[in-house]
């Protein structure tokens, strides 16, 4: 029953879409309001993207269980959307896609198809790969009807839709499907692929193609770069996306991104965040002529912000990859011709024979015509010689293959010339890394450094090219998770004549050893760093300290903390809090006091991240603060009270409340919501009501969360009189606020069987507060309880008092049939409404 009520809360609050062309001079404004759920932002952005609308600005807010987004959009020509049919279509698509219909609740972006077979591919990118794939499909009489191919960071991914050449429909023969999969796997494997090639043949239902490509490349870890950070900066200059993460109060992580603007950029970012299980609570998007700026306040679905350096680095890498995957790299070629079996195989073969590398491709067919777009470079990644393009166009036909404008043909700015100097170093790093991993696979156990690997390095002849940057590239790109190989290569390099490590190579080896928790080796290398007076980046120290804390090496973590030569505040509040909590928990009170002093003096915020599951530790920190005469702020108290409530330590939470106000520290909205929510949940509603009154006296305005949790608690305790009084206060405070919580309040009343109170409540509200959603909720609950006559009486009142609302209520009841587990009672109610109240709607519902 509770699950049915939860479904009902979502279902009755269907998305509301308002499209406005008058409030903004240069864009159409689309506002979407709905009950919040994970993935709803992606669904809305996906609809706008699929319709080729350009999002110039966006404002996102989905806190407190409600989702409200505003998008400023234009068409591809930069004009407002003025066509009435297009506007209506946008509205219907968003309301349908962002709704809660059963066909879409399973996963975001699922689309059914029985017309073709979907093939998903992933493997190492190389020149001619697409040509080989297309040749295999042509030989197996598979006609490519649609496809999209992405390459990024030496990896390739594709989603290809094929049909049987004879039948024109999906391929269903299991043996033939097995043959297709086997042959494509052989093509993708390559001779030196360090990652497993993947070929997946889909069932009739499949994921949204572009979202699926993001998922494939993410699973293939394309975000793990081959280049070192310094090299890629030189290579790409200002065109590289800039992604930064910062944890702030209220346990949000703020993500800011600056990059070149391009179509579908917001979709790519939101898609990646959603698939990584992060929720966007607030956000802002602003695009200029060239640059796009995006800022999101996020948490993981578990409610926590990003709390470790490893997680922070991974999120940054993944967002950078999301921005870059679809970036238009190379010369754009557009093919438009009659479709036929083998067409794509022939075209890509010509590209391969002329030494072109396909960086990205979009294949489509419609009405017997093929329209394909390719982004190409030469095999080294440089712009294509115009003479080669002319030769290819002569072979294919000048009218069939068009060259689109591409900036890669323009002269490169001076700063990009360094790329050609650095590129061979990256190639050497690739050869070294792959050779070491390949050779170590023959050892027992595998991936262990042995003397024979030195011979492998000598055969490569890489000593003349050896540099700290090269060592760092090899370790970061290939050996970071193979500590024995990383340390062996690092030591081998240090033994070569005339070579010495610097901070760049030390940082890479220290990160690798931290990842695998090789604490003895870490200690030795850190001593070397200290002797040589090398300066390490704060991110390396975060890596090391996090690893030591996870390995229960708390005292060692403290020693590293005091070796940091950059400002310790750069380590981040989360790490400082974790170290502080670990020191107190393990009894190193003297060390904890020093860390505490450092944090307090530098203004590092105290939070509950390090105290998760360790409330006693947090109390000890609080006592230390009092001994020093220091005053904890409201965020420290909130974190500690929240930790207490999470572990059902209500009495300590109340004592903290009293101590906080006695110390002169004023509570904020979150302070009250933490305790009101917990007290309401455990049935102490009198205490919750007292706090509610207290917050109003102190000038703290309740929000939807305050009212919803308090109303739920009062209904659970059957204190319906107080519940009505509290709801009336929400009406006095803000009509829109009252309207947003009304349907949920009705559900809580009905759950306790208080149908009469719910009906009187709705009948006593003015038209600007009541809604068709709330009335539909009550009627469905009455139908489920077999109170059909009661429901009819309520419908009679609606017909007499709010006749314009009756049709909307009826439609919502019809819509609920597809998702309820007990449709019979609703069918009975609908039939009664048709006969007695709404005879004009007999065509709207005829039964199932």
TrEMBL record:
Keyword match Hydrolase: no
Annotated keywords: Repeat
Repeat (PPR) residue spans along the chain: 572-606, 633-667, 668-702, 703-737
Keyword Cell membrane set for record: no
Residue span, ACT domain: 29-113, 118-202, 332-414
GO terms for MF: amino acid binding
Function: Binds amino acids.
Protein name as catalogued: ACT domain-containing protein ACR
The species this protein was found in: Corchorus capsularis
């Amino acid at each position: 029953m509770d699950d049915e009520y939860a479904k009902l809360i979502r279902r009755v609050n269907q998305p509301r879409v308002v499209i406005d062309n008058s409030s903004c001079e240069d864009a159409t404004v689309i506002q979407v309001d709905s009950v919040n759920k994970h993935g709803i932002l992606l669904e809305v952005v996906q609809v706008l993207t699929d319709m080729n609308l350009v999002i110039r600005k966006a404002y996102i807010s989905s806190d407190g269980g409600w989702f409200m987004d505003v998008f400023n959009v234009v068409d591809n020509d930069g004009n407002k959307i003025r066509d009435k049919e297009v506007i209506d279509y946008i509205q219907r698509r968003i309301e349908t896609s962002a709704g809660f219909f059963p066909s879409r609740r399973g996963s975001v972006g699922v689309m059914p198809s029985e017309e073709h077979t979907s093939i998903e591919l992933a493997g190492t990118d190389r020149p001619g790969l697409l040509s080989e794939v297309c040749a295999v499909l042509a030989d197996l009489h598979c006609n490519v009807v649609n496809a999209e191919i992405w390459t990024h960071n030496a990896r390739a991914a594709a989603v290809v839709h094929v049909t049987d050449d004879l039948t024109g429909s999906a391929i269903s023969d299991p043996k033939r499907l097995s043959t297709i999969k086997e042959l494509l796997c052989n093509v993708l494997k390559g001779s030196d692929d360090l990652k497993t090639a993947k070929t997946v043949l889909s069932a009739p239902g499949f994921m949204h193609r572009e979202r699926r490509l993001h998922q494939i490349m993410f699973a293939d870890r394309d975000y793990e770069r081959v280049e070192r950070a310094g090299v890629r900066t030189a290579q790409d200059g200002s065109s590289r996306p800039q992604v930064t993460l910062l944890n702030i109060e209220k346990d949000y992580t703020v993500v800011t991104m600056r990059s070149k603007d391009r179509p579908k950029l917001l979709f790519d970012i939101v898609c990646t965040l959603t698939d990584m299980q992060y929720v966007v609570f607030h956000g802002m998007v602003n695009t200029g002529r060239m640059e796009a700026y995006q800022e999101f306040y996020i948490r993981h679905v578990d409610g926590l912000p990003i709390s470790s350096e490893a997680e922070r680095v991974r999120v940054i890498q993944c967002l950078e990859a999301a921005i870059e995957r679809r970036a238009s790299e190379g010369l754009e070629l557009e093919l438009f011709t009659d479709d036929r079996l083998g067409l794509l195989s022939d075209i890509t073969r010509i590209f391969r024979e002329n030494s072109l590398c396909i960086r990205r491709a979009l294949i489509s067919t419609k009405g017997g015509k093929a329209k394909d777009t390719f982004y190409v470079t030469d095999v080294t990644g440089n712009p294509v010689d115009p003479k080669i393009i002319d030769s290819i166009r002569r072979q294919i036909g000048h009218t069939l293959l068009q060259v689109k404008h591409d900036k890669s043909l323009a002269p490169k700015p001076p700063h990009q010339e360094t790329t050609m100097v650095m590129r061979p170093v990256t190639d050497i790093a690739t050869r070294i890394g792959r050779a070491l991993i390949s050779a170590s696979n023959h050892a027992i156990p595998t991936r262990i450094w042995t003397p024979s690997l030195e011979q492998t390095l000598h055969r490569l002849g890489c000593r003349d090219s050896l540099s700290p940057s090269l060592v760092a590239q090899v370790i970061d790109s290939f050996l970071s998770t193979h500590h024995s190989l990383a340390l062996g290569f690092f030591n081998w390099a240090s033994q070569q004549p005339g070579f010495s490590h610097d901070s760049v190579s030390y940082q890479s080896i220290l990160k690798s050893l931290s990842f695998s928790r090789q604490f003895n080796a870490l200690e030795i290398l850190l001593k070397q760093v200290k002797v040589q007076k090398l300066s390490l980046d704060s991110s390396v120290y975060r890596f090391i300290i996090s690893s030591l804390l996870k390995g229960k090496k708390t005292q060692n973590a403290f020693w590293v903390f005091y070796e940091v030569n950059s400002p310790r505040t750069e380590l981040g509040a989360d790490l400082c809090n974790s170290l502080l909590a670990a020191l107190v928990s393990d009894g190193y009170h003297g060390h904890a006091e020093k860390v505490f002093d450092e944090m307090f003096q530098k203004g590092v915020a105290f939070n509950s991240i390090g105290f998760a599951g360790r409330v006693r530790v947090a109390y000890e920190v609080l006592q230390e603060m009092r001994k020093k005469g220091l005053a904890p702020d409201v965020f420290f108290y909130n974190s500690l009270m929240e930790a207490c409530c999470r572990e059902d330590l209500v009495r300590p939470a109340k004592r903290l409340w009293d101590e906080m106000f006695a110390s002169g520290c004023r509570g904020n909205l979150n302070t009250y919501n933490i305790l009101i929510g917990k007290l309401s949940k455990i049935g102490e509603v009198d205490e919750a009501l007292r706090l509610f009154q207290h917050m109003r006296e102190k000038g703290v305005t309740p929000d939807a969360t305050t009212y919803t949790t308090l109303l739920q608690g009062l209904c659970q305790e059957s204190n319906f009189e107080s519940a009505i009084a509290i709801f009336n206060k929400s009406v006095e405070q803000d009509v829109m606020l009252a309207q947003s919580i009304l349907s949920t309040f009705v559900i809580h009343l009905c759950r306790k069987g208080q149908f009469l109170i719910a009906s009187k409540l709705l009948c006593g509200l003015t038209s600007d507060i009541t809604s068709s959603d709330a009335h539909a909720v009550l009627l469905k609950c009455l139908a489920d309880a077999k109170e059909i006559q009661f429901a009819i009486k309520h419908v009679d009142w609606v017909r007499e008092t709010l006749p314009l609302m009756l049709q909307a209520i009826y439609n919502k009841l019809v819509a609920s049939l597809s998702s309820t587990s007990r449709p019979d009672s609703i069918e009975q109610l609908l039939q009664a409404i048709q006969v007695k109240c709404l005879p004009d709607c007999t065509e709207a519902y005829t039964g199932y």
